[in-house]
Write a structure and sequence with these properties.
Blueprint: H1 2-20, H2 26-32, H3 37-65, H4 67-87, H5 91-119, H6 124-155, H7 157-178, H8 192-211, H9 219-241, H10 255-286, H11 290-310, H12 320-336, H13 351-374, H14 381-407, H15 417-455, H16 464-472
Length: about 475
């Protein structure tokens, strides 16, 4: 169990490091790779496309054909994609490597919680393990921007991917050596139409959100967004009719599953999306370097690590659904505390709000990890993890798009550079209020799910939730 937790937590941290590493040095990396404004957008978006398109598919494949097998393949592909990014001869190859990195990340994240839950029996040991896994997310977010800025500054943008390739190769060796294989007793048949419609729908939707930053009324943006929504609607129709669906839509009758997927969606929408773009805003408003902006963000993500490790102490007092509501509420209060940023402000002005939001984020990450496996049948744990993370990353893509649109809304008409900084500060304040409001909306929805959960009798059968609750009692 200890080795399984160490390997999966290390791989999860590497995934978040790889995603967030370019955030603090986005402009420098794009310039060095000879990428324009559109290319800079796709450095982050490409990874989101790969992750969101295949998370649910990877989770189902892991449950049916072996969680260790899918996880180990994912870590090896992760190492290969980072090596490709480090050796990319042109910017287009670098962007392709970022998309491949997203595919690899999906194959790592989806089986991780299934491996952890299989290695740890329901009860306090599993709750503690899931809290540590949730802390690994925060650790990766804390390390990523600082690592990316430092390595890019000292050794160049190629070395960022090279270092991650070496680290992930070591994790792959540990996975092959220490993990134990697990899978469902009766594998399901392949759901090819579900796989295709989900992958295509999420890819088009996220691509449309990325391209929308250059103007939402453009025909290509409208076509991408409409096409994505139509394909996702087709996916739902397919899953409702197929005999063995990749995602059983009956799960949405469960308040716990609604809280898990809805909480993850609003976490990405209100928190991850805004915080992913915060270093860029800090550089534009306060004039911070990429390294300094990454260090400021580390205050939030570092405290989320500590909070996630201590979240297990809430398990005997609050259900996981209630913890999601509490986490979103605290995050909203912390984000609201960031309001009032001006070009003359010190970064210390942000410290209280970032600290409060970090504490809420840790509680949220631990609770979502717990809900992801407890809200689905025990043999579909990886699928539950895939559904949860798919919601999180789609929300993140939408959250980044909202943040960019709102923060830049006042800057376009600024007559001078100094006025542009003031306008960006004004737009940043608006984006902060929008992010905080979305947190509060997510908290209300989680509370509604908690109320419905309390009125619903426990479903019969050996679900992870029923086992966990029995062990806790």
């Amino acid at each position: 169990p200890g080795a399984t937790l160490a390997v999966t937590a290390a791989a999860t941290a590497l995934v978040t490091v790889a995603y967030t590493a370019p955030t603090a040095s986005l402009a420098a990396t794009a310039q060095a790779a000879h990428l324009g404004a559109t290319g800079r957008t796709w450095i982050l978006t490409g990874t989101l496309v790969g992750i969101s398109a295949l998370l649910l598919t990877a989770g189902s494949a892991a449950d049916d054909h072996g969680r260790k097998r899918v996880f180990t393949f994912g870590v090896l592909l992760f190492a290969a994609s980072e090596a490709l990014a480090a050796l990319a001869p042109v910017g287009a190859v670098y962007l392709a490597a970022r998309v491949l990195l997203g595919v690899a990340s999906a194959a790592v994240l989806a089986p991780a919680l299934g491996l952890v839950s299989h290695a740890h029996p329901p009860g306090p040991a599993r709750i503690r393990a899931l809290g540590i896994w949730g802390a690994a997310i925060g650790l990766g977010i804390a390390v990523g921007p600082v690592y990316g800025a430092l390595v890019e500054q000292w050794a160049g943008w190629r070395a960022v991917g090279g270092g991650l390739a070496v680290a992930s190769a070591a994790v792959a060796a540990c996975a092959a050596r220490y993990l134990t294989e697990s899978r469902a007793e009766r594998p399901r048949a392949l759901d090819p139409y579900g796989v295709l419609t989900l992958a295509a729908g999420t890819s088009l939707l996220i691509a449309g959100l990325a391209e929308g930053r250059g103007g939402w009324g453009r025909p290509v943006v409208v076509a991408l967004l409409v096409g994505g929504m139509l394909l996702l609607a087709t996916f739902a129709a397919v899953e409702a009719k197929v005999r063995e669906p990749m995602l059983d839509l009956a799960l949405f009758r469960s308040p716990g599953f609604i809280a898990a997927t809805g909480g993850a969606l609003f976490t990405g929408l209100s928190l991850v999306g805004f915080m992913s773009y915060l270093p860029t805003l800090l550089q534009g408003v306060l004039g911070l370097s990429g390294l300094a902006a990454g260090g400021v963000l580390a205050l939030w993500s570092g405290l989320s690590v500590i909070s996630a490790l201590q979240a297990r102490r809430l398990a005997t007092r609050l259900s996981a659904t209630a913890q999601v509501a509490l986490g979103l509420l605290v995050c909203g209060l912390g984000e609201a505390g960031l309001y009032g940023l001006t070009p003359g402000s010190s970064w210390l002005r942000l410290a209280p709000g970032l600290a409060v939001a970090g504490i809420g984020s840790g509680v949220l990450n631990a609770a979502l990890a717990r809900l992801a496996v407890s809200s689905v049948p025990a043999h579909r744990a990886a699928m539950g993890s895939g559904a949860n993370n798919t919601s999180r990353y789609i929300g993140s893509a939408l959250g980044v798009a909202i943040t960019v649109a709102v923060a830049g809304s006042a800057r376009a008409t600024a007559p001078s550079p100094s006025a542009a900084a003031d306008a960006l500060a004004t737009g940043t304040g608006r984006a902060i209020l929008v992010a905080a409001a979305l947190c509060f909306v997510g908290a209300v929805l989680a509370l509604a799910a908690r109320a419905a959960e309390s009125r619903t009798e426990p479903a019969p059968g050996p679900t992870a939730a029923s086992q966990e609750h029995a062990s806790a009692r």
